[in-house]
């Protein structure tokens, strides 16, 4: 974010929190503590939480932070994101966003805000800012690190005729069974997003998980493997170029056939080069070619699955 964007978000949040601080009930209590927001930047991976922590002794505060700098200064809370990004071989190409900007340690109290109209309006106005931030950075992969944040994306909305419940952001999703992720395909016309009900996130894969701090090693390893697969083959299976937009369906079959043809020819060339390297005992070169052969084989397999 540049300074203008940071200032604009800060001004909007000051207006919201000052207004609700003089309301009543739980919304007033929480709003009076102030807010925290992250200065996100366009990155490959976006981690999403529910809300910042609040400690009783910290007092009212209104401030922003840079996720990468905070990971270095406060590794207890943010180093896990850096570790996962490095395991996915993207280094520091990640950022973090809390869906809400209110400060509360007990997330069940955040959900209690849904019990009255004032609380719902308090949440709605914060999420409208979050939508704009999400749309502006357009990441390759979104990881939702809170089960309580999940409903606000609209994935659990219930549609019965003209009645729709649980819309919130209102993103529409399609499950991709090749990678086990939900992919954004559009946005519902009743989304709380201000202005035109359209999205730049069509084709964006989303992984809904829970708090990473509670993952055991096998669960964390599975998440990292899944993330690596999505990022590795992103250009082939995700992004707007591989999905429907404005009623125009992009024909993928011919594109896939051409990609398979090119990769198959490349595979033949690599195998020939590997055989030549082995015949003159260039084993290090042959090993590198074998790795390339394996990677291209895996891509071809996925493309063949996508054609079915």
Write the layout of secondary structure elements.
Blueprint (H helix, E strand, L loop, with lengths): L2 H19 L3 H7 L2 E5 L6 E5 L11 E5 L1 H7 L1 H13 L6 E5 L8 H6 L4 H21 L3 E4 L13 E3 L2 E3 L5 E6 L4 E7 L17 E4 L8 H16 L1 H4 L15 H27 L3 H25 L1
Parallel strand pairs: 1-3, 2-4, 2-5, 5-10
Antiparallel strand pairs: 6-7, 8-9, 9-10
Q: Report the mean per-residue pLDDT as an integer.
A: 89
How many strands appear in the DSSP assignment? 10
Q: Alpha-carbon distance between the termini? A: 42 Å
Q: Main sheet, how many strands, which sense, barrel?
A: 6 strands, mixed
**Strand share of the residues?**
15-25%
Q: Tally the helices: what do you get?
A: 10
The backbone outline, from C-alpha atoms, is elongated
Domain module count: 2
The order of strands across the largest sheet is 4-2-5-10-9-8
CATH topology of the largest domain: Uracil-DNA Glycosylase, subunit E
Order of helices and strands: HHEEEHHEHHEEEEEEHHHH
CATH architecture classification of the largest domain: 3-Layer(aba) Sandwich
From the alpha carbons, calculate the radius of gyration and give it in angstroms. 23 Å
- Uncertain runs with pLDDT below 50, 5 residues or more? 245-250
CATH C-level class of the largest domain is Alpha Beta
Structural class: alpha/beta
In helices, the fraction of residues equals 40-55%
Q: What are the defining features of this structure?
A:
308 residues, alpha/beta, Uracil-DNA Glycosylase, subunit E, six-stranded mixed β-sheet, 10 helices, elongated
């Amino acid at each position: 974010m540049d300074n203008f964007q940071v200032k604009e978000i800060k001004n909007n949040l000051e207006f919201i929190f000052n207004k609700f601080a003089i309301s009543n009930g739980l919304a007033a209590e929480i709003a009076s503590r102030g807010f925290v927001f992250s200065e996100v930047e366009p990155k490959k991976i976006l981690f999403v939480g529910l809300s910042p922590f609040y400690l009783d002794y910290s007092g009212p505060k209104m401030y922003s932070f840079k996720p990468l700098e905070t990971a270095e200064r406060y590794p207890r809370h943010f180093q896990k994101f850096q570790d996962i990004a490095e395991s996915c071989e993207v280094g520091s190409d990640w950022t973090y966003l809390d869906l809400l900007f209110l400060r509360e340690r007990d997330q069940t109290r955040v959900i209690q805000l849904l019990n009255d109209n004032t609380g719902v309006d308090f949440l709605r106005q914060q999420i409208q800012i979050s939508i704009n931030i999400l749309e502006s950075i357009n990441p390759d992969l979104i990881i939702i690190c809170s089960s309580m944040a999940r409903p606000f994306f609209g994935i659990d909305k219930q549609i019965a005729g003209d009645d729709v419940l649980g819309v919130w952001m209102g993103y529409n999703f399609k499950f991709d069974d090749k990678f086990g992720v939900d992919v954004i395909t559009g946005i519902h016309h009743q989304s709380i997003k201000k202005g035109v009900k359209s999205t730049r996130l069509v084709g964006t894969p989303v992984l809904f998980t829970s708090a990473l701090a509670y993952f055991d090693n096998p669960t964390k390893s599975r998440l990292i493997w899944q993330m690596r697969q999505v990022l590795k083959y992103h250009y082939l299976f995700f992004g707007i170029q591989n999905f429907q937009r404005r009623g125009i369906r992009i024909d993928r079959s011919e594109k896939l056939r051409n990609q398979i043809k090119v990769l198959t020819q490349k595979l033949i060339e690599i195998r020939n080069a590997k055989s030549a390297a082995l015949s003159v005992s260039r084993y290090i070169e042959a090993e590198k070619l074998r790795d390339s052969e394996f990677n291209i084989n895996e891509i071809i397999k996925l493309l063949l699955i996508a054609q079915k």
